[in-house]
Automatic annotation (TrEMBL):
Protein residues bound to FMN: R133, S134, S135, N256, A257, G301, K316, P317, I318, P319, T320, R342
Recorded family membership: Belongs to the chorismate synthase family.
Pathway assigned in UniProt: Metabolic intermediate biosynthesis; chorismate biosynthesis; chorismate from D-erythrose 4-phosphate and phosphoenolpyruvate: step 7/7
PANTHER family found in the cross-reference section: CHORISMATE SYNTHASE (PTHR21085:SF0)
Role, per record: This reaction introduces a second double bond into the aromatic ring system.
Name the UniProt record assigns to this protein: Chorismate synthase
Gene: aroC
Length: 393
């Protein structure tokens, strides 16, 4: 199972083509659009979210609400395209025009962005050629692909939810999700302006975001994704590139502005003895093998244990500041204040939605690497057989 995305931030549309989805999967456009709506939400978002109302168009691979087994194409139209047609159009420049005549040309790379290094790599003198694709706008269709993965996982009684645990140094109570179901976590996150499960911390986070915006600054944070219902043995200890935790870490780190990832206790393990890190194993006829704790975050030896997968990612503060940092003009080599693009004071809540969906995709992909899945019923039977085998082992 794989997907490819295409499109620029201010181009006509964003597109993803998904290959490998089993046939006979019911696909809800409403759920797809709800995922995109959540990605655009959260306190601290900028004006772009008021311009774009992201809606999915399914143009192939689905008939009468069910997947065909052939590639699925999803498209999201950029409503702002009408103002960018001459700036971002694919047609050659009109006779007599040069690149110097193009409006909004950028020669000043912004610190913390892909602008300068991307310009060097692809020899772009107009750095808009870099920032249009490196923009987090591309995560729109990554979320769409992840939404289809979530719908697949739900058919297998596997649920993926994301939420915020930290913004600007304010920490939520991390014990809260331990006592909630996946649906309760999702509902509580949706009720929060910052997608946080801790009501008191949510209010403090909103205040911190407002203060950063007023100061012309930005703040980052930490998001957590929880996967429940995954049977034991998904992933592999045999090859490094098939380890489940490695693939989850890659997925989390592939999100724009993410700079760290951990599972379970994560970096806290460095400060603890082994007796306070590893999870003791228990067995009962009703539940099969379980762990007394879940400090390792649901994986051992690169494979799922059957306990909830708990993975966190840290998002740096967005580098586009309204009090911009200094940069160097690539044409004149003079020092300037970095150019200002539309930006958010904090996009951590939206990033939790992106993380939820990229993790859902990776879990679904590893599942389909493990079990036969030409059609949904075949996959269901294979996953259920694994659950039974694990319980009776």
């Amino acid at each position: 199972m794989r997907y490819l995305t295409a499109g620029e931030s201010h181009g006509p549309q964003l597109t993803t083509i998904i290959e490998g989805i089993p046939s006979q999967l019911s696909i809800s456009t409403e759920k797809l659009n709800d995922s995109l709506r959540r990605r655009q939400g959260g306190h601290g978002r900028g004006r772009r979210m008021q311009i774009e109302k992201d809606l999915i168009a399914i143009t192939s691979g689905v008939r009468h609400g069910k997947s065909l087994g052939s590639p699925i194409c999803l498209q999201v139209t950029n409503d702002d395209w009408t103002h960018w047609t001459h700036i971002m159009g694919s047609e050659p420049l009109e006779e007599g025009m040069t690149e110097e005549d193009i409006k909004r040309k950028i020669s000043r790379p912004r610190p913390g962005h892909a602008d300068l290094v991307g310009g060097i790599k692809y020899q772009h003198r107009d750095l808009r050629n870099v920032l249009e694709r490196s923009s987090a706008r591309e995560t729109t269709v990554r979320v769409a692909a992840g939404s289809i993965a979530k719908q697949l996982l739900e058919q297998l009684d596997i649920h993926v939810v994301g939420y915020v645990t930290t913004i600007g140094g304010i920490h939520a109570d991390r014990s809260i999700p331990e006592i909630l179901t996946a649906q309760e976590i999702a509902d509580r996150a949706n009720d929060s302006a910052v997608y946080c499960l801790d009501e008191e911390a949510s209010g403090e986070m909103v205040t911190a975001i407002d203060a950063a915006k007023k100061a012309g600054d930005t703040i980052g944070g930490v998001v957590e994704v929880r996967v429940t219902g995954l049977p034991p043995g998904v992933g592999s200890y045999v090859h490094y590139d098939r380890k489940l935790d490695a693939r989850l870490a890659f997925a989390m780190m592939s999100i724009n502005a993410f700079k760290g990832v951990e599972l379970g206790l994560g970096f806290e393990m460095a400060n603890l003895p082994g007796s306070q890190v590893h999870d003791q194993i228990r067995y009962s006829e009703s539940e099969g093998y379980t762990r007394e704790t879940n400090r390792l975050g649901g994986t051992e030896g690169g494979m799922s244990t059957g306990m909830p997968i708990v993975v966190r990612g840290v998002m740096k503060p967005i580098p586009t500041l309204y009090k911009p940092l200094e940069s160097v003009d690539i044409e004149t080599k003079e020092v300037f204040k970095a150019s200002i693009e539309r930006s958010d004071a904090c996009a951590v809540p939206a990033a939790s939605v992106v993380a939820e969906h990229v993790i859902a995709w990776e879990v679904a992909q590893v599942l389909l690497d493990t079990f036969p899945a030409d059609h949904l019923q075949q996959l269901k039977e294979s996953v259920e057989a694994r659950r039974t085998e694990a319980k009776e082992f």
